[in-house]
Design goal:
By secondary structure, the chain is α/β, with parallel strands linked by helices. The chain contains 13 helices and 18 strands. It has a ten-stranded mixed beta sheet. The chain has an eight-stranded mixed beta sheet with strand order 10-9-8-11-12-13-14-15, with helices on one face. Strand 13, helix 10 and strand 14 form a beta-alpha-beta unit. The N terminus is likely disordered.
Length: about 425
């Protein structure tokens, strides 16, 4: 490849790694938007039988907190960002500000939120804490949070070996956050293990599993291992050498992310960290991990956007196959989402579900760049986003919460599950 082409490809990959036209009319008569004039109204407390999924807006990365039907709790990522450092290093990109404000650390705000929404009987511990991959915007607050509330079990992509696709303990020896993580899992004697791809039992209800037979979690992906869709069997999509050769001795955390499918009755939910899906442009075939993921996940009611909606993820096949009714975008940077990703999400044909898109924290510069037509196709641009699935698993609601007051801003639904 000519040196000029290599330079262009390197620049494209650099942008991908840092992560950082007509209106679709809503005609779905099965759902409604309820605007709440009384900002003091709060989300009703979780009750047994409900599945609550809290996409928490801290302005500093991803954090999703689950309360399962029997009260078992799971935290999927707990990110933090150095806004000043990021903007200095990656100017002119802008990062969002801490939410609700910078009077507390991100870990402290997460703790406040979790204590606020968790029933007292389940506040003593977070049963499962999952790290999708080792980027600060996905696990930077985990160590601080772990000092305040114990984790029953931590699950990451590669423990205890931490050697894929390189020896992470040495490769990340100067990474303060990763070294802090090593101290947590070593000194605090917390149980830690790798995600078992293909398993439907590693993550399970801990309090009353028999009471909710319609609830399950399927482990879809970790590292290069992807579930085949048959029993617990898996396939290896690429090798460590494939990745380190392409990155000339380095590697990329994003395509190594965990992915889960959570089901409750007819309700299905997908989340996949920063998994990538771009094809072409000199990229290897294995860079598109979304396509084999989508093939085994199938249609879902709700999905989060891979890699915050960045340009190297959420490809056309992924969107069309998952075909979600509700899309959750967790973001913190002025280049989230990629405009082409947004076009794929709003496009509709006779096979496409009518789609509602919600954002935790859209950067003001993104709105200025894309214009009013972009804003008009979002249901909500700012706030905590809570999915509440009813006990029968047939319907669900979407609640938008004010970050400062925890008051209800808007309510959407009910949505009917397929």
């Amino acid at each position: 490849m000519h040196s000029k082409n290599l330079q262009i490809l390197a620049a494209v990959l650099f942008i991908f790694q840092i992560g950082c036209n007509s209106k679709v009319e809503n005609t779905n008569t099965d759902q409604q938007k309820i605007t709440l004039a009384d900002s003091k109204k709060k989300l009703e407390a979780w009750q047994e039988g409900y599945l609550d999924i809290h996409h928490i807006n801290t302005g500093s990365g991803d954090a999703t907190y689950f309360i399962f039907p029997d009260g078992t709790t799971l935290l999927f990522d707990a990110g933090s960002m150095d806004k000043t450092g990021f903007e200095k290093k990656y100017a002119p990109l802008k990062a969002t500000s801490p939410v609700p404000d910078n009077s507390k650390s991100t870990a402290e705000w997460l703790l406040t939120y979790i204590k606020n929404v968790t029933p007292k009987a389940h506040q003593d511990t977070i049963d499962y804490a999952l790290i999708s991959h080792f980027h600060s915007d996905h696990y930077g607050s985990l160590m601080g949070l772990g000092k305040e509330i114990p984790f029953g079990k931590i699950i990451d992509r590669n423990s205890p070996d931490l050697d894929f696709p390189v020896n992470l303990k040495t490769y990340l020896k100067d990474d303060d956050i990763f070294q802090s993580y090593l101290s947590l899992i070593t000194n605090e004697k917390v149980s830690v293990e790798a995600l078992e791809v293909g398993s439907k039992s590693q993550l399970h209800l801990l309090n009353d599993q028999n009471a909710f037979p319609g609830f399950s979690i399927r482990n879809i992906k970790s590292n290069a291992t992807i579930w085949t869709g048959v029993d617990n069997t898996t396939m290896e999509y690429f090798t460590a050498e494939d990745m380190t050769s392409f990155y000339k001795g380095g590697y990329n955390e994003n395509p190594l992310s965990l992915a889960l499918k959570i089901s409750y009755g007819d309700f299905d939910y997908f989340t996949g960290g920063d998994n990538t899906g771009l094809q072409g442009y000199g990229l290897p075939q294995w860079f598109d991990v979304e396509t084999p993921i989508a093939k085994v996940v199938g249609q879902v009611e709700v999905t989060t956007l891979n890699h915050h909606g960045n340009r190297d993820a959420t490809n056309e096949f992924f969107v069309n196959t998952l075909n979600p009714k509700v899309v959750i975008q967790q973001l913190w940077c002025s280049d989230h989402p990629g405009q082409e990703v947004y076009q794929r999400l709003i496009y509709q044909d006779k096979e496409t579900m009518e789609r509602d898109i919600f954002s935790t924290n859209m950067h003001p510069e993104t709105l200025v760049t894309y214009g009013p037509w972009f804003k008009d196709n979002y249901k909500s641009l700012q706030g905590h986003i809570v999915i509440r699935v009813n006990p029968d698993g047939n319907t669900f609601m979407v609640y938008i919460l004010n970050e400062g007051t925890m008051g209800l801003k808007n309510v959407y639904g009910p949505y009917q599950c397929n």
